[in-house]
Write a structure and sequence with these properties.
115 residues, alpha+beta, Alpha-Beta Plaits, 5-stranded mixed β-sheet, 2 helices, 5 strands, 35% strand, globular
Amino acid sequence: MAQAVPGGLKVSNDCIADLAGYAALECYGVTGMAATDEQEGVVRLLPTYRLRRGVGVSTREGTVVIDLHVIVEQGVNMASVSANLTSAVKFLLQQIAELNDVDVRIHVEGMRTSR
């Protein structure tokens, strides 16, 4: 069994965003992360290597706030996908980054039909 090591752990916002993005992609019903072009008002599906653009990380009163901008498959139950997504991101961040106080907010930016 692993032994505890004394000291602190600091995790960058970029690392947290990457972890949250990869956790999101593993969830059923999530097609990918989204980025909105403010000028054109168009939502784009991000490639895997640019997931960070679809994840916002901030802190509020000691709580880490994760904003996930996702595109989901058409026909999925949004409540189930959101609950699963929130649970998966919180679990991964707790296991890897040792973050216990996390608020995950899901923003469904669009739907994609399956091919």
